[in-house]
Amino acid sequence: MSYLKNQVLASAPALFVICRYLAHHSSGATVDRMNAALAPASLSAEVGRAGRTAKVPPVLPDSLQIGVDIGLLDVEGFRDRRVYILRHTYVEQIHDMPPADSRAFRTLLLRRFGARVLDAVEKDESPPDVPYAITWLLTWDPLQSTSDQWDQGPREKFEHAGMRHAVHNPEQWRPFLRWARALGLITMTTVSRKTRLSVDPTCAVEGLLAEMPSSASAREWLERLYELAPLLGHPRLLRALPDGISVPPGPSEAMSLALLKLERANRVRLMHADDFADAVVLRVGGRDRRIARIEVVEERS
Length: 301
Prior knowledge:
This protein has helices at about 5, 10-25, 30-40, 40-45, 60-70, 90-95, 105-120, 130-135, 155-160, 170-180, 200-205, 220-230, 235-240, 255-265, and strands at about 75, 85, 145, 185-190, 195-200, 215, 270, 280-285, 285-295. By secondary structure, the chain is an alpha+beta fold.
């Protein structure tokens, strides 16, 4: 599925608002009903002369379609009578999310995007473009920033890697960056009035710590992480990248950086490995660190 061609205006904030609304309306809702309840007055004020249907901003149907595709929503009925329903699995979880704090929802999105692309790869289907391109994005060197302008570096990187089928032009690049940032996988900095992006999944990994083993061997801990969020480095997804892309074994440099930053923030402990044969190697900037176990540090209330 090509989100970047067909659902270009979809966004994480819109999906959060939609899913919170549906969590409070278990029987579901049509697009018109959600538009009347959720769209700003300036967007929904244009009503036909017959007074039937308000103008629906494209972000709403675009976001709904992605919600269905990644398994957050179900849809019943046809055309204008389609009713969108939040899957029962997520009702209680999303119902309890504070409206002003979408971090838990973005973690859920990260997991659902990963599950969707992994399912496609395992079925030998064409993977959806956003999560497939993110899988490759997370293999980039986290210490080398890149321009946020498509024609000032990113286009050549995608071309060289054979990934232009996932992100083809600046019109697709911009929403792709929006998704990557929303999922906590990149950071943006401004230097001399120019914006640079760096691959950094620290926020994404931190959002998953509550569901990770409190203490486990480094290999087991990372396997669990990839199970929860395949985009962070699931081996099956990495093998599905184009043949010309070389992916070293073990955690990517971006994942390694995230773990080291979380250690400095006292969110995890990385235990040294005496036995090199059983160690996991964290590699950043040409420096290696071998670890045997990972422990999650409980947050102080």
